[in-house]
Amino acid sequence: MAKAEDIESVTAQTGRPLGPRALKTRERLMDATAELLEERSLLDISVVDIARKVGTSPATFYHYFKDVEEVTVHLADRAADEMPAVLDLIDGSWEGDAGLARARNIVDAFISHWDTHHAVLQLRNLGADRGDKRFIRIRRDALGPVLDRFAEQISEAQKAGHLPASLHPYIAAAALGSILERLSAYHKELTHFGASREDVVETCAILIFRTLTGTNS
Amino acid sequence: MAKAEDIESVTAQTGRPLGPRALKTRERLMDATAELLEERSLLDISVVDIARKVGTSPATFYHYFKDVEEVTVHLADRAADEMPAVLDLIDGSWEGDAGLARARNIVDAFISHWDTHHAVLQLRNLGADRGDKRFIRIRRDALGPVLDRFAEQISEAQKAGHLPASLHPYIAAAALGSILERLSAYHKELTHFGASREDVVETCAILIFRTLTGTNS
DNA sequence: CTCCATATTTGACATATCGTCAAATATGGC
DNA sequence: GCCATATTTGACGATATGTCAAATATGGAG
Q1: N or C: which end of chain B has fewer CB within 10 A?
Q2: From CA B40, how far away is CA B72, in angstroms rounded?
Q3: Domain formed by A78-213, architecture
Q4: Separation of CA A19 and C1' D29 in angstroms?
């Protein structure tokens, strides 16, 4: 599970490893990009914009990154660091009310995660769906463990006869992941329908709980 | 429900309505953009690329569109024209096996729809999630009627006591929409897990059926 | 503290795109 | 065949891209 942000892999475009000063500059370039992504589309962000914001020259940018998209790859990597915390919420019993509470916590964590990294996560999925290996790996590393646990839980529910055998556990798990990601991505738009964030959490939690356990409570 | 592609609204950047020759040129520019979107990211598509592909000059492009993103708006509009066919699949009884078969057809239609317009639909959602009014309207027009029907069906299942009252019908419907969209977007990646397209359709159909009716069959 | 090897940054440049005109050209009704 | 107007484009200044070789900063050895 080698992560792209492992120290040894942080190099200049030349392949050379970076010293402390360079690391700081690279960091500032990434931060500036993340901030610009908050306010406008990737389409409207140029290398010059980023360089200007950091108070450096475009040439410096190109010393560290091939293009702006490559910065988003590393930003996605950085966002993925939060996922272990979500995994902690998954492990444990899914029986009854405890299971439902667990589902609520997961949904809540996902929404917060997306609220914090909206633009970057959206670009990650865009890239991954387009077939970009870098983004596919990052998404798999982040989401895979979650889906694995979901799939395992679904399998158990199937063995207990609570869910039909024709359900493909991993695909069903991916479907739950889809709900989490998609609703997290646009839950704010849903509030225009008179639905609060709590409503989103509650409804989403119920659907996940029901699909993981096959029970109705 | 005024659509952006209504004839009267197809104008040059100056606001002037377009004659037959101009309409054809505009069409070719849109087609060229759609083709380019098949092979590379919007980031890597310049106005010059599109103009060259059509065998015209950049100035001509700017006569019809503000920028490349505006073309994608109209492409998204065009893709939305297919949705009425999906709506036909939704209406009718959701009881028993007929309901499950109905779900299968819907999933199948969605996956085909996304396979055909992948890049454009992805950009539509990207724009809409970012708050762009143009894309929000297009998505709402396309998905709203589907979600409305889902929500209505869920309400009925609640009244019949098959689903918990704490479920917010419209959010649950949006969750189903999320499954449809997200799995349609990356179902090809799932097949690397030994899951066929049929598996995706079947699993997705079961989940939708169960959530719409609250029954287990 | 000074010097120097090397890490880091940048100015300068050739190339390309952007976006806007006013001017050129095509069209179709008379 | 003429002309009003619909459509296209050549030309251009401004801005961005991407690559050097050269300039500057740093920190460890002496």
Answers
A1: N
A2: 14
A3: Orthogonal Bundle (1.10)
A4: 19
